[in-house]
Amino acid sequence: MTITRIVALLAVIGLGVSPALAQISDGVIKIGVLNDQSSLYADLAGQGSVVAARMAVEDFGAAAKGLKVEVIFADHQNKADVGSQIARQWYDAEKVDLILDVPNSGVALAVNQITRDKGKAFIVSSAATSDLTGKACSPNTIHWTYDTWALANGTGTAVVKTGGDSWFFITADYAFGHALERDVEAVVLKNGGKVLGKVRHPLNTQDFSSFLLQAQASKAKVIGLANAGGDTTNAIKQGAEFGIVKGGQSFAGLLVFLTDVHALGLEKAQGLTFTETFYWDMNDKTRAFAKRFAERNRQIHPTMIHAGVYAGTLHYLRAVEALKSDDGARVIAKMKEMPTDDPLFGKGTIRVDGRKIHPAYLVEVKKPAESKYPWDYYKIRATIPAEQAFRPLDQGGCELVKK
Amino acid sequence: MTIFGVPTQALFGQLLIGLINGAFYALLSLGLSVIFGLLNIINFTHGAQYMMGAFAAYFLLNWAGLGYWWALLVAPIAVAITGIVLERLTLKRLYQLDHLYGLLLTFGFALIIQGLFRHQYGSSGLPYAMPAELAGGRNLGFMFLPNYRAWVIVFSLAVCLTTWYVIERTRLGSYLRAATENPALVQAFGINVPRMITLTYGFGVGLAALAGVLAAPIYQVNPLMGADLIIVVFAVVVIGGLGSIMGSIVTGFGLGVVEGFTKVFYPEASNTVIFVIMAVVLLLRPAGLFGRAS
């Protein structure tokens, strides 16, 4: 018997023993978490997303089902060129099948295109721009957790309806900030409000005093913060110093995460109202998840980003199992076809444009006296039902939607 | 009345804001200048030491119950001691070598220190409250000036000018300057030059930490707060002229103002404008605005 025959025989035996692996490229499902590991978005995503992905693999019971799943991660440093380069290397050289998370809309849009070109799969949790399911939508991408349209719709509508009808925007100067500003402005105008001015600041700005002064001078009732992470916390902290709220203006944090509230402290963050799609203290299932997660993530409780990574990974693995293949476009198609069901977002669906559909919540940050235990930060003020939480399918301009 | 479509009143506000940010630039670039002028070391750890100052203030408050005013005194000393250890153990071996070695070593230390803090405390930072005495603010007619910012400007100006006076106008300062020109000769007069250099490094580091304490109540106490700032501060030092004390102070405040105005007229460029100025200055006056060509 020649060597070739032996190899061929072993291969056949191998396939026979574990049919689940039949169509899995090189026998391993490799998941790459690509996000900000070191800068302003590292707490709201960062290592926490890696922990969430690993928990999903364990909870799915991959090992028991004979599936070999490996989770790797990298830091894109919020640079589209670095992110693109890692994504290409992962897909080409390291046989990564799925890229997860990817905060920073600029980087996510780049990875979205690369994933499509390479025929792999991409599940977005952190990046916010609604263009990912609009004009940049792709048969290889699912946008799981939230988007700028949902934030605008949730927070913007609530603020205008409670009398905040004149706005000034402080906007992060890149794809995400622009998309958020655009979507909120549309909501404000639709509800009869007006926009008095806007100013755009570079990503990762320390000092907001100059922008706050401009916002103050505009006399707008609401100062909309179309930024995230450290930029938002710095703006709010310095806003208190400049007497913004005492002067009768109010902040609308358009994208605020649990970790931002933790970093600000309740004293400064109390009363902020914004939109989330997940809060760890909603029910027994979310609390159980948060407890396990915090133990593995320096006691930091899960943000909606972490929840999205967990749920997205779980659904991905189920689709791979059902399909017995890890072919990017086919798995994504299968994910859209199968209803979703996970302990964090409950039952839901994924639309043809890649938009995951679930309810959103309008939350208000508690006063220090109302907070009874660590990370007890939110009151849920309103629930926006799943069918109203996201942009209607026909308004995004996605080419996958049949006219 | 308006200038380029911006009300003059608003410009006054931005001028003041610029001066406040300039105060931080001045304080940080001053420390760098002192260290470079006397040790010939380009101290890239400066940003990390600024961050350590802010963290020291946080630790003092939360572990020892010592508030802001104590932090202003204790934090710079504590961070200066870590700087002195660093100098004794590593930097002093590099004085005879090219600047590049000191730069690489201190850059490496900066990355290690920032990495350790980030690992321990995360990237979103920790809250540090404003001292009650300085909370609030007053309405100046053209803008609302928080008391704390007024304090920052006055305090850092006082520190800068005192430092300039000590180095340029006193006997101690003359020893220091002489020791940079000719250490062997100064040593021959019975002055302990290595100790003087160590203490100078400690002082420069202490200035960085002091800026960190001043920053703690306005910015988040964040492991990366110095990482971006240090690049700008280096540009300030280069524009002012490496090693020039007065150059650092004047340029620090001046560039703060320029940056402030950029935030009004073209905010998108506010983090590049300083580097554009740096490029222009290097083309026209390679030694910097206040530097002496050697």
Textual characterization of the structure:
The complex is a heterodimer of chains A (403) and B (294). With 403 residues, chain A is of the alpha/beta class. Chain A folds into two domains: 24-146 and 282-352, Rossmann fold, CATH 3.40.50.2300; 149-276 and 361-383, Response regulator (Rossmann fold). Chain A is 41% helix and 19% strand. Chain A is built from 14 helices and 15 strands. In chain A, helix 2 packs parallel to helix 12. The longest helix of chain A has 20 residues, at 304-323. Chain B has 294 residues and is mainly alpha-helical. Chain B has one domain (2-284): Orthogonal Bundle (ABC transporter involved in vitamin B12 uptake, BtuC). Chain B is built from eleven helices and four strands, in the order ββααααββααααααα. Chain B has helices at residues 8-39, 46-63, 68-89, 99-121, 147-169, 171-181, 183-188, 193-215, 225-240, 245-265, 273-284; strands spanning 2-3, 6-7, 137-139, 144-146. Chain B has a two-stranded antiparallel sheet. Chain B has a two-stranded antiparallel sheet with strand order 3-4. In chain B, helix 2 (46-63) packs across helix 9 (225-240) and helix 9 (225-240) crosses helix 10. Chain A binds chain B through residues 38-44, 46, 173, 199-202, 204-207, 209-211, 213-214, 216-217, 229-230, 233-234, 237-238, 241-243, 247, 259-260, 262-265, 267-268, 298, 300, and chain B through 7, 10, 13-14, 17-18, 20-21, 118, 122-127, 129-130, 136-137, 143-144, 146, 148-149, 218-220, 222, 224-225, 228-229, 260, 263-264, 267-268, 270-271.
